[in-house]
Amino acid sequence: GDPDQPIIMGRTYHEDNRSPGSLPGTKTQMTIRSKTYMGSGFNELKFDDATGKEQVYIHAQKNMDTEVLNDQTVTVRRDRTKSITR
C-alpha cells in the first residue's frame, strides 16, 4: 500500500490501548473513542451488532456539526424522539 494513504483494516487492543468496553459484555460492539486533550471528555462512534438490538451511537463531548453538500434523506420507520435541554 501507499504509506501516504493508509487503509485501516481493523484495530488491535493491548496493554496501552484497551478496548473502551469490557468483555464479554461488549463483544458485539465496535467502538472508536478519542480522548479530550488535557481533559476527561471523549468523542465516540459505536456500532452494536447484537441480533435484534443493532444500533449506531454517536457521542459528541461538546458540539456536533453536520454538513451536507447535496441531498439528505432521513427515514424513521417507527418512533422518533428529540430532546433539547439547557
What keyword list fits this structure?
86 residues, mainly beta, 3-stranded antiparallel sheet, 3 strands
Question: What would your notes on this structure say?
Answer:
The chain is mostly beta strands and 86 residues long. The protein has one domain (1-62). Helix content is 0%, strand content 22%. It is built from no helices and three strands. It has strands at 29-35, 42-48, 55-59. It has a three-stranded antiparallel beta sheet, with no helix packed on it. Residues 30-85 form the Gp5/Type VI secretion system Vgr C-terminal trimerisation domain. This is Gp5/Type VI secretion system Vgr C-terminal trimerisation domain-containing protein. It holds the Pfam family Gp5_trimer_C. InterPro entries: Gp5_Vgr_C (IPR054030). Residues 1-28 are annotated as: Disordered.
Q: What overall form do the CA principal axes indicate?
A: extended
Task: Report the β-strand fraction as a percent range.
Answer: 15-25%
Mean pLDDT across every amino acid position: 90
Quaternary structure? single chain
The rounded Rg comes to: 17 Å
Q: For the record, give the distance between the C-alpha atoms at the N and C termini, rounded to a whole number.
A: 48 Å
The helix content, as a percent range, equals under 10%
Q: Give the SSE order as H and E letters.
A: EEE
Strand tally: 3
Major β-sheet, in short? Answer: 3 strands, antiparallel
Return the domain count: 1
